[in-house]
Amino acid sequence: MFVRTVVLLGVGHTNAHILKEWARNPVPDCRLVCISRFPTATYSGMLPGTLAGQFSPDEMQIDLQKLVARAGATLILADVTSVDWNQRVLHFDNAESLKFDILSVGVGSRPAGLPEENGACLVPIKPMQTFPRRLDERLDVVAPKSGQLLKVVIVGGGVASIEIALCLQSKLRFHFPYSNIRIRILTSADEIVDELPGSSIRRVRLILQARGIEVVTQSRVTEVDDSGIVINGVDRQSADCVIWSTGAAAPPVLSRLALPVDSHGFLVTTPTLQSTIDPLVFAVGDSGSIPETPFPKAGVYAVRQSPVLWHNIKALLNGGPLLEFKPQSDFLKLLNTGDGRALLLYKSLTVHARWCWTLKTWIDRKFLRHFQV
Ligand SMILES: Cc1cc2nc3c(=O)[nH]c(=O)nc-3n(C[C@H](O)[C@H](O)[C@H](O)COP(=O)(O)OP(=O)(O)OC[C@H]3O[C@@H](n4cnc5c(N)ncnc54)[C@H](O)[C@@H]3O)c2cc1C
């Protein structure tokens, strides 16, 4: 008979680690329940490479049924509709309500600024589980004939958009070798990847330029319909496929939890990753926000939170002091450029080489091996 219930809401970079640890070292008298909207979790680091045809789609997926079974846990495929905080019960759209003792929220983020009304050519990057299928469905509809032009727009000027643009180009050139492929990256900012040092930005721009990928700055896409986009509310331009890959915004489920949020709607936590009003609730990865030590929404930080979360869940269950998460100030970035190379960026160092792709693939595969049962 289980005395307590730990619930993982969303199985992403941080919460998946709890399943891994639980399989090796389950907490006595305690059951673990996972909630996901999909039976798989997608590893974003390998999504661009999958687009480029470097990996099979299965290689970037984590089978949650298997991962959960290995840990002796339970998987509920449903979406949370509300929480009764007096009873500590989660309610779902299509599953029985669930009482919990400890809750860890790790539902990630969604691309910011998605237009409310969207046309057939819009393909948001999330949910990532369905992105390759949705993209292929759109490309089937707009498949160019020999000599015809295919116009692709990528909205968002961050590192993910750069990788998607470069890797997608490889895919499109392979599938439509006799067509003209035009890829444009649109950003509302003054510059792409503007969080990086100037030397890195210049290197990224040179690579894009060499590959014929256009960058348009100060251009906010305000509308997407069936045949194209509207920029800055006035400038209508045709497009066949619009990939929405903007920065991180809070997913709607976070507001349904009725917990304290920051100005962007992410759950506010202490450095121990606990909600500021409920120490038995954690918020991790993109979903959480620590005002004392802000850091970018990136998988690297979500992964680094994993051991802290595992330690703190056990500390709450068994007693003992909690650990604080201390984010690193910078991290190594490896951008897949879709041509068998990757661009390594660290502080002001930039290297674009095959060995960087090998290193990136080794790191990604090593990480995923922990979760692919
Ligand atoms: C194309 C792309 C490439 C990227 N590459 C990198 C990179 O190389 N390095 C890096 O550091 N960062 C990268 N990022 C950012 C990185 O993906 C995120 O920062 C990271 O995934 C955050 O981890 P997480 O666990 O918070 O969320 P996620 O990994 O997104 O996991 C959240 C999970 O919760 C699920 N979920 C969502 N809503 C619900 C719900 N209502 N109920 C239940 N489950 C739900 C989701 O389906 C998902 O499986 C990339 C992002 C993109 C879009």
Question: What's the quick description here?
Answer:
The chain has 373 residues and is an alpha/beta fold.
Secondary structure elements and their pairing?
Elements: E1 4-9, H1 15-24, E2 30-36, E3 40-42, H2 47-51, E4 61-63, H3 64-70, E5 74-77, E6 80-84, E7 89-92, E8 98-99, E9 102-105, E10 110-111, E11 122-124, H4 131-142, E12 149-155, H5 159-175, E13 180-186, H6 198-210, E14 214-216, E15 221-224, E16 228-231, E17 235-238, E18 241-244, E19 248-249, H7 252-256, E20 267-268, E21 281-283, E22 288-289, H8 299-318, E23 333-336, E24 342-346, E25 349-353, H9 354-369
Helix pairs in contact: 1-8
What does this structure look like?
With 373 residues, the protein is of the alpha/beta class. It has 2 domains: 4-110 and 249-318, FAD/NAD(P)-binding domain, CATH 3.50.50.60; 112-248, FAD/NAD(P)-binding domain (3-Layer(bba) Sandwich), CATH 3.50.50.60. The chain is 28% helix and 27% strand. The chain is built from 9 helices and 25 strands. The chain has a 5-stranded parallel sheet with strand order 5-2-1-9-21, with helices on one face. A 5-stranded parallel sheet has the order 11-18-12-13-14. The chain has a 3-stranded antiparallel sheet with strand order 6-7-8, with no helix packed on it. Strand 16 (228-231) and strand 17 form a beta hairpin. Helix 1 crosses helix 8 (299-318). The protein binds flavin-adenine dinucleotide. Flavin-adenine dinucleotide (FAD) binds next to strand 2, helix 2, helix 5 and helix 8.
